[in-house]
Design brief:
Blueprint lengths: L1 H10 L9 H4 L9 H4 L3 H14 L3 H5 L1 H5 L7 E3 L12 H4 L9 H25 L8 H29 L23 H18 L16 H15 L3 E2 L8 E2 L10 E3 L2 H21 L8 H9 L10 E5 L16 E2 L16 E3 L1 H6 L5 H6 E2 L1 E6 L2 E6 L8 E2 L9 H10 L10 E5 H16 L13 H11 L6 H9 L5 H16 L5 H7 L3 H18 L4 E6 L7 E2 L11 H4 L4 E4 L11 H9 L18 H5 L14
Helix pairs in contact: 1-4, 4-8, 4-9, 8-9, 9-10, 9-11, 10-11, 11-12, 12-17, 17-18, 17-20, 18-19, 18-20
Length: 644
């Protein structure tokens, strides 16, 4: 992890004074002519690293995309409630779908992503014009491998642009000096995704599997990720999307479709072919065996927090390599909260301010599902009078922290760096995961369910049924003593396509919440608005009938600083005599029933995702920034009711 981050920093021309002297003596690709760079595998490698370097910016994958732009869904919320939910000067309003083209971060994201695309275009063109790419032998293989990486990284970035903005300019060549190709109009997103699929089919031939080449870990683009990304794009291409205008021959949704900007998908025959394409590539990943489920879901998240690659199972198919103190706000802007300064974790503390989870989502887990307490943190850490203590956060049904990034699991190296940084913002260096093997199994289950039904077989599959793929993901999340109950849950699902699809949708939330993926799956299923409405109704019902007004719990130590999570009375308050035996208690979600203001119910709940259907139905897409439009020479304009 350290070596690839160092190479990225060098190739991007951002050399720190602490860099080793031998690196300082090296020549940056920016100082060489294009011909020189791409007639050397070494310099070409640095040019590819510059593409990776663009992924480590705050405006791309260090903060914006994995933490902010995946909200709001039915279980993941930006921390904008009440009046904050309409504040269009920051993410709190914009991610509640009250978006404003004047919000400055839209342009920052757009510019940064197109900057990455420009660097990828330069690499692709440079390799295509290089004699090494036609030389035969190891140099040609290396150069084509680099081309495969550039094609895949470009596809990943374009895929995100499409998911954020819809139709966007498609630019597959580097900018010319006379700017003749600098100002482009929008390209239909389906054409873009078709191009990305074609690019990835080429890239797959050039790329190794993780570990096949000694330096190609899951911090590199590999064959497994290219297959996975292609499958995800194919499913999105075959799914539902809001359109700038109705497309002839497309199917219009009967639910949640705007009369002016309809939600549509391709025809049934095209959709089937796209599902078959996805099946081919998902099956390739499953059948190859390079990537597997880590038997311990706890260990997988521990390794990620420790900044250690899982070289045994390679469950994380692609991790964007981040650098300690350099990039990644995982564990800082999202994660278990450190409320203020502490001697153990430093003067700054941990804001954990952007992404939250919901009470109905917490309630949806089986009580023995290990993912519940890994994902949902109803506590924070706070130092008072020199004592660092875990504290329950109480009646915050829309403010549960995402515990997948947990300051208590991070490495000693990280902790010492945080302390040394003082009261300044510090970066965790935790890698951003862009594809996990459970996603492969869930997409595979979805595709097989559509093509073959819950227990059927299909030509070109990996030999697993829908039930088997879903079982692998679900049952992994239960310990040995509760495994039989997990297996019984899977066995009890009726052999019905709709029932299995609903089970896949549920499993998607339990497995992936907080990671920035669910919103986009709900969109392609045309379930985003429906599931948000369901979550709101569930909260009302559970608040009235199920949530305890208080939870009781014990501590694991005599100083009462660490909560015994196994002791918490989440689901039912004890009787008065039993309650006296617990160390402590805290108001919980049911306290809203007797709260005279009922702020959560009457103010916060209605504000969540309040702009999604306010002026245009299902308007989940962001507007293009006003500054981008004004600089486009008249080529770009907003749609979906947004002003320019």
């Amino acid at each position: 992890m350290k070596n690839i981050v160092k190479a990225i920093i060098i190739s991007a021309g951002v050399l720190s004074f602490s860099a080793c002297s031998d690196f300082l003596d090296q020549t940056s690709p920016s100082e060489q002519t294009g011909q020189t760079v791409y007639e050397s595998t070494y310099y070409t490698g640095l040019a590819v690293n510059k593409i990776y370097g663009g992924l480590t910016q705050d405006q791309t994958y260090s903060q914006y995309i994995p933490i902010v732009w995946g909200t709001n869904s039915d279980c993941e919320l930006v921390d904008g409630l009440g009046a904050d939910a309409t504040n269009t000067s920051n993410e709190r309003g914009n991610m509640n779908y009250n978006a404003n083209p004047g919000w400055g971060n839209i342009a920052k994201l757009w510019d940064a992503l197109y900057g990455i695309i420009e660097n990828a275009n330069l690499v692709i063109e440079g390799i295509e014009g290089s004699s090494l790419a036609q030389s035969g032998g190891s140099d040609q293989k290396t150069m084509l491998r680099y081309k495969g990486e550039a094609l895949t990284l470009r596809a990943m970035v374009y895929f995100d642009l499409v998911r954020f903005f819809g139709d966007v300019p498609l630019k597959l060549e580097s900018s010319k000096a006379d700017l003749s190709n600098a100002y482009l109009a929008k390209t239909d997103r389906d054409e873009i995704m078709d191009q990305l699929i074609s690019d990835l089919e080429e890239a797959i031939d050039y790329l190794p599997w993780a570990g096949e080449v000694s330096t190609y870990t899951t911090e590199h683009i590999t064959k497994g990720y290219a297959h996975s990304l292609l499958a995800n794009i194919a499913l999105t291409r075959g799914g539902w999307a809001i359109r700038e205008k109705a497309k002839e021959g497309y199917v219009t949704a009967t639910e949640n479709s705007d009369p002016t900007y309809p939600t549509q998908r391709c025809n049934d025959a095209t959709r089937k072919s796209l599902y078959e394409l996805a099946l081919t590539h998902l099956s390739a990943v499953i059948s190859n065996g390079t990537h597997k489920l880590n038997p311990s879901v706890e260990n997988e998240w521990y390794l990620l927090n420790q900044r250690k690659l899982d070289e045994n199972y390679r469950e994380n198919i692609f991790e964007i390599p981040m650098g300690l103190g350099v990039s990644s706000e995982l564990g800082y802007t999202v994660g278990v909260r450190i409320n203020g300064a502490s001697a153990k974790y430093g003067a700054k503390g941990n804001s954990s301010g952007k992404l939250k989870l919901t009470a109905p989502f917490f309630w949806s887990f089986d009580k023995n599902d290990l993912r519940r307490d890994i994902t949902c943190a109803n506590l924070q850490l706070k130092e008072t009078n020199g004592v660092l203590k875990e504290e329950m956060v109480g009646n915050t049904p829309f403010g549960i922290y995402c515990g997948k990034w947990d300051i208590r699991m991070m490495s000693e190296e990280w902790r010492q760096a945080a302390i040394a940084t003082g009261n300044a913002k510090w970066m965790s260096g935790i890698n951003v995961v862009r594809m996990r093997y459970p996603q492969i199994l869930l997409m595979y289950a979805e595709v097989m369910n559509e093509l073959a039904g819950p227990d059927g077989s299909y030509a070109g599959s990996a030999g697993m049924t829908v039930r088997q793929a879903l079982s692998a993901v679900h049952c992994r999340a239960f310990d040995y003593d509760n495994k039989a109950d997990a297996e019984a849950y899977i066995a009890a699902i009726r052999a019905d396509k709709d029932d299995f699809f609903n089970a896949i949708v549920d499993e998607n939330a339990w497995e992936l919440a907080g990671e920035g993926f669910r919103k986009f799956d709900l969109i392609r299923w045309n379930l985003l608005s429906k599931k948000i409405d369901e979550f709101k109704e569930l909260y009302k019902d559970q608040m009235e009938n199920e949530y305890p007004e208080k939870i009781y719990f014990n501590y694991t130590d005599e100083s009462k600083t660490v909560i015994d999570m196994a002791s918490v009375t989440w689901y039912k308050a004890p009787d008065s005599e039993t309650a006296k035996k617990y160390d402590d208690n805290k108001g919980f979600f049911g306290a809203e029933r007797t709260d005279s203001k009922q702020t959560q119910l009457l103010t916060n709940l209605p504000s969540i995702a309040s702009g999604l259907n306010a002026s245009v139905k299902n308007r989940y897409l962001m507007p293009i920034a006003s500054t981008t439009i004004s600089a486009s020479n008249g080529k770009l304009h907003n749609s979906y009711g947004y002003s320019d």
